[in-house]
Amino acid sequence: MSRYWSDTVRQLTPYVPGEQPKLPNLVKLNTNENPYGPSPHAIAAMQTELGDNLRLYPDPTGEKLKRAAARFFGLETHNVFVGNGSDEVLAHVFLALLKHDKPVLFPDITYSFYPVYCGLYRIDYRMLPLDEGFRLRPDDYRQANGGIIFPNPNAPTGILLGLDDVDRIAADNPESVVVVDEAYVDFGGDTIPTAATLIAHRPNLLVVQTLSKSRSLAGLRVGYALGQTDLIEALERVKDSFNSYPLDRLALSGAAAALDDRAHFETTRLAVMQTRERLSADLTALGFEVLPSAANFVFARHPQRDGAELAQALRSRSIIVRHFKLPRIDQFLRITIGTDAQCNALVAALKEVLE
What's the pLDDT at 3? Predict the structure, then answer.
């Protein structure tokens, strides 16, 4: 540790992102990237921004992107906040809406950035255990708190909490903000189970989404939050005290075009869901326990083989998946849904390893 570090930095345990290795002939199934490219309309929109206008600052309000998100969800622009990836949006959420005297509540198995934000902003928190089937229990959240946050579908389990239960958590906590982190919700079924449909009658509900997964724009870094006006205003106040221009011209144009291209969105997300079901069946046939996934990944373990050893054996065959060295889930592998060819290569490699 450097003597120049602040006390806050000394106490941080930073988030560890998924590995981005440079291996030959790599089958990369570790960071939940979409195997299909972004909307051609999004690429065309970004190309139109490659000119003299790049000398000018982008729109600090992100109005074009807000209008696109509002159209998609049937909301107004004042119900939309945009930021540099959902991670930045979440960082503003923790500071603007979850920093109170009482602890923030979230599951014990969840997105590992949440305790990092709490450490950064010195927010007290309490982790509530998922049940034995790795499901969130809404009744556990009926206790004093300074806010509630959970992914839906959960990460890294992929398990979806029904909208009735989401609504019940918000109803049970009218004095707290309930944040639903929907990074993977677009893979939840033919009818997308987004909590955005609850915003009109739940003033304490905030929904956070990203364009990294279902819109194949992980490299662009665009996220947004949906909620009633006073919640969005709090986020804007933090954003404008931190970085007035979080999204560049390419990102604003490309993201707006991606949200407007519903045909590409539907085609690619349905393809991912179909491959997910085939992969789940193949893994089950190999003896894996596969949790029911509503995301673009599956979470699976083999009763006779160590998770870390399986991950290493796959890596030696140029296939990488995510392994978490964490209590309760250290035997699981989180496997991103790739193309059919990539998933077939994974299954073939696992057959070889298990034999």
Answer: 83
Q: Does domain 40-260 have CATH number 3.40.640.10?
A: yes
Burial of 304 (0-12, 13-18, 19+ CB in 10 A): exposed
Angle between helices 85-97 and 229-239 in degrees, nearest 10: 110
CA dihedral of 84, 23, 349, 216, whole degrees rounded to 10: 20
Answer yes or no: are the C-beta atoms of 69 and 260 closer than 8 Å: no
Q: What is the pLDDT of residues 200-256, one digit of tens each?
A: 999 999 999 999 999 999 999 999 999 999 999 999 999 999 999 999 999 999 999
The helix, strand and coil proportions of the chain, stated in percent and rounded to the nearest 5, come to 40, 15, 45
Instruction: Return the closest-CA partner of residue 90 out of 166, 6, 5, 177.
Output: 177
5 Cβ partners below 8 Å, 6+ apart?
none
* pTM, two decimal places: 0.95
Q: Quick one: average pLDDT of 329-336? A: 98
Ranges of each domain in the chain: 20-37+263-354, 40-260
- H or E element at residue 245: none
Give residue-wise pLDDT tens across range 88-121.
Answer: 999 999 999 999 999 999 999 999 999 999 999 9
Domain 20-37+263-354 has CATH 3.90.1150.10: yes
Whole-angstrom CA distances from 133 to 21, 109, 128, 157 are: 33, 12, 14, 10
Does the pLDDT value for residue 37 go beyond 90? Answer: yes
The residue to which tokens 């004042």 are assigned? 78
Distance CA 209, CA 212 (A): 9
